Amino acid sequence: MLAHTIMTKLFVISLGGSRINPGHIDTNFLKKFRALILSQIKKGRRFILITGGGRLCRDFQSALKQISSPTPDEVDWIGISSTWLHADLVRLMFGKLANPNIIKDPNKKVPFAEKILVAGGWMPGRSTDDDAVRLAKAYGAASVINLFDQDFVYNKDPRKYPDAKIIKKLPWKEFRKIVGSKWNPGKNAPFDPIAAKLAQKNRLRVIVANGKNLKNLKDILEGKKFKGTVIN
Q: How far apart are CA 121 and CA 124, in angstroms?
């Protein structure tokens, strides 16, 4: 178990599309996630939430490839559109607590007085992980919480290799050796290679944790011991 110290009341959370849409819109998870964020807002915290595309993204990308011969950018754009739809869902489920705009360009800082700012994808060649890093930098957050579909980062894909080892802490240099240096549309990784490079450059800390475990997310937000991997 790891612990960390809360340095700010602003949290950047990358909400993986696999949590929003693992094959269907997971309304049960979203209700619980909403309740957790609302409880944290009552404690004075604010959030930037970046939504991924999940199964919806991969389904549309797969369909496009079956129908025609799209360019890599076209495959990326259809995936980016799916993140915007998820972002609208998340924005609307928080009502007036959320800024009415979805951030589609993380390089354009939008002042927001609300408790929540929601962002989706940006441009081809960039994932929502990249958005999270850029938004953390723009708004002065020291960390990004990346809600993935695994409890930890492993030295190799545990779904393919039973002997994969858990890594609880590691520097960006070592993490980038694990994920490589190239971005592929729809790639399912704890944190994408391009975003990792940018995070390392900006000395940003990323916490990778299982998005299903909302009690664990609560512990992260409150500076308690938690299950996950810290990359810095």
A: 9
